[in-house]
Amino acid sequence: MNIYSSYGSGFLTFLLDQYSKRTDLPARGEHVSGNVLAEKAPLLSRDPHQGAQIPLIFKITIILLLFVFPLKSQGGQDCDAFVSPIQDITVCHGETVNVEIEGEAEYFSWNNDNTSIGLGLFGTGSNISFTATNTSGEAITANISVTPWGLDEFNQECEGPPVVFTITVNNLPDAPVSNGDITDCAES
């Protein structure tokens, strides 16, 4: 089991690094306030040959805290959440698009890389529904990434592996239709 999370280990490293860079602490053996030895005064002592030394008890305390209070799990490692594969979709301008997201998760989030199709930039839920838009004169495609979110063994929110699918929106034909009904949009 990995006790460090992507957020936790970076933050812990930052804290330890900042603590070890303190310059207001005297070097080991250096006198402080007369005859008090520096190695008895600070939590962190300095050795001119090794740099800052972090006490072992401090390191053990941090590791135990990470076991007791685990931080956010790394994506997909301890997470059972998943999204079932989603087929790519091709529609015409003005059509209603309804995508049902299936899988195992507490909830699903999605991101869209091309809002010109009529779909917002991001959202949550197990259904993506919108009216397709394309007045550009050629087909436009958006990549939609769906991420499942679940709970790990510590009951912490975790991210499962994302699934990506495309939505292509074809434009309407430029030529007038003789019978007044448009049944197919232009294929690019």
Overview of the structural elements:
- The chain is an alpha+beta fold and 188 residues long.
- The protein is built from 2 helices and 14 strands; from the N terminus they run αββββαββββββββββ.
- Strands 6, 9, 10, 12, 13 and 14 form a 6-stranded mixed beta sheet that branches. It has a two-stranded antiparallel ribbon with strand order 1-2. A two-stranded antiparallel ribbon has the order 3-4.
- β1 (31-32) and β2 (36-37) form a beta hairpin.
- The protein is elongated.
- It starts with 5 loop residues before the first helix and ends in an 18-residue tail after the last strand.
- The relative contact order is 0.16.
- Residues 1-9 and 35-45 have low confidence and may be disordered.
List keywords for this structure.
single chain, 188 residues, alpha+beta, six-stranded mixed sheet, two-stranded antiparallel sheet, 2 helices, 15% helix, elongated, disordered N terminus
Describe this structure in a few short sentences.
With 188 residues, the chain is an alpha+beta fold. The protein has helices at residues 6-20, 56-68, and strands at 31-32, 36-37, 45-47, 51-53, 82-83, 89-92, 96-100, 103-104, 107-112, 122-124, 127-131, 140-151, 157-159, 163-170. The radius of gyration is 29 Å and the shape is elongated.
